[in-house]
Design goal:
- Helix content is 35%, strand content 24%.
- The strands form 5 sheets. Strands 7-6-16-17-18-15-19 form a 7-stranded mixed β-sheet, with helices on both faces. It has a 5-stranded parallel β-sheet with strand order 9-2-1-13-20, covered by helices on one side.
- It has 3 domains: 3-43 and 63-85 and 211-295 and 406-462, FAD/NAD(P)-binding domain (3-Layer(bba) Sandwich), CATH 3.50.50; 101-196, no CATH class; 297-401, Polyamine Oxidase, Chain A, domain 2, CATH 3.90.660.20.
- By secondary structure, the chain is of the alpha/beta class.
- 43% of the residues are buried.
- The chain has helices at 16-27, 67-77, 103-128, 136-144, 146-161, 170-176, 182-191, 212-225, 273-278, 286-293, 360-363, 366-379, 407-418, 438-453, and strands at residues 9-12, 33-36, 47-50, 53-56, 81-85, 88-92, 95-99, 204-208, 229-232, 234-242, 245-253, 259-263, 266-269, 280-281, 297-307, 317-320, 329-332, 347-355, 388-401, 424-426.
- The chain is built from 14 helices and 20 strands.
- The protein is globular, with a radius of gyration of 23 Å.
- The structure holds flavin-adenine dinucleotide.
Length: 472
Amino acid sequence: MTARQHDKLLILGAGPAGIGCAYTLAESGYAPRLIEKEREVGGLCRTLDYHGYLFDIGGHRFLTKSKEVNRLWSKVMGSDMLRVSRLSRIYYKKKFYNYPLSFFNTFWNFGLIEGLLCVASYFWCKLFKPGDELTFEGWITNHFGKRLYEIFFKTYTEKVWAVPCRDISANWAKQRIRGLSLKVAIQNAVMGMKGNRPKTLADNFLYPRKGPGEFYHRMQAVIEAKGGQFLFGHEAVKIHHQNDKIVSVEVEKCGNGRPEIAGLDYLFSSLPLPVLVQRLCPAPPAHVIAAAKKMHFRNFMIVNVILDKEQVFPDQWIYVHSPEVKLGRIQNYKNWSPSMVMDLRKTSLGLEYFCDVDDELWGMNDIDLIHRAISELEKIGIVSRSHLIDGFVVRQSDVYPVYSLDYQENIQVLKDYLKMFSNLQTMGRAGLFRYDNSDHALLTGIYAAKNYLGDGPLDLWQVNTDENYLEA
Ligand SMILES: Cc1cc2nc3c(=O)[nH]c(=O)nc-3n(C[C@H](O)[C@H](O)[C@H](O)COP(=O)(O)OP(=O)(O)OC[C@H]3O[C@@H](n4cnc5c(N)ncnc54)[C@H](O)[C@@H]3O)c2cc1C
């Protein structure tokens, strides 16, 4: 063992970024310590076992353009990685639209008049560009036309973000639906697409037989076998620094509150970026704190139910655009992998809601929430409440970084400030305040470890800025 391999390496968070980082360090002979406030690995990619039924925190496709990530997935999962043919539709005003859009299904649902109006609106907007290109609303209107914007983007996007689309930065559209246009969608529908198709439209994806959590548990086993340690159920509450170095982290057992000091030589953090900055002691200058306070996340809540019904719908998930219900998306887990359910005669669904902490829904008790969610399913004609056997609710904070119009300026202020610490890297989705998927988060963790190991410099902020990676 080299002298440096005795360094005390601390990783905050055991989600994809933390695990990617720990795995890379462990493979190079280091023994990192991970602090995780949940009771298991995986972060937003963990899989929960409820009476033998497995639930994701929302369905998680394994889809990447990174060869490194692909190699790792297949090395760890081997034949337990399934290839799943995608089926997902949009539910809007009592109709199901194929997604990716299929020309004939869409126009059949629209009818001739609405179909022609959409085409006319598309050409008018293409020609006169009436939208403000800096906003989500303007960007989509200019690229798809006002009518298609209202049907396929407005209601769902406003459910996710709870702010008018004119207050959301166009960067969100550019990042999430880059490469997709009406022309591409029609090409896809009529002729099929070859080669460099955007990932949103990918018609198949990988998925671990027992959900994404299985991948992270296997990674955990490798890390532990090489000397890495996990401290679950503990939250990092204060991060102490001195002379431009992080020197220790104050860690509290969740629900118990007795602090423990963890000394360190190097810190890798996947804490949400504004949280990391606000937990630094001594506190950063006022302008840095002010910028951090302007950065917000949307929360996510999933109502998981088990139903006494064999077939509910054939899709892996359905986007619910209809404004008459708050429900945003429905996951049907046995259509991801049959091993997600204990009894194939039953169905387990995840009913997804996007919330803030002060929303009525977020504060409701679990039983009322389950009944509310089932009544929304009944309202849109998916199931009847008589099928409900059991259910539980998961509330998840700091999930969707809000791309407000000034978010990039705020990130820059925090980034500039954090540069002074020579032994700190921030990584992962919330850690970089980027709407990234798990492959990107994993990669930022791997890159952070490589930077530490001297295999860099690799710019974590550039991961997922020039790829065609999408999810609507
Ligand atoms: C509904 C939904 C669907 C998604 N679908 C997909 C998909 O299909 N495919 C895909 O690739 N990605 C998908 N994603 C994105 C994916 O979940 C994230 O990109 C990924 O989990 C980010 O990994 P991370 O390690 O950066 O963060 P996280 O997964 O959030 O992990 C961070 C960890 O840090 C811990 N933590 C936070 N604060 C503290 C603290 N103070 N002390 C100790 N621990 C702390 C958290 O508990 C968490 O475990 C989806 C996300 C959501 C919400």
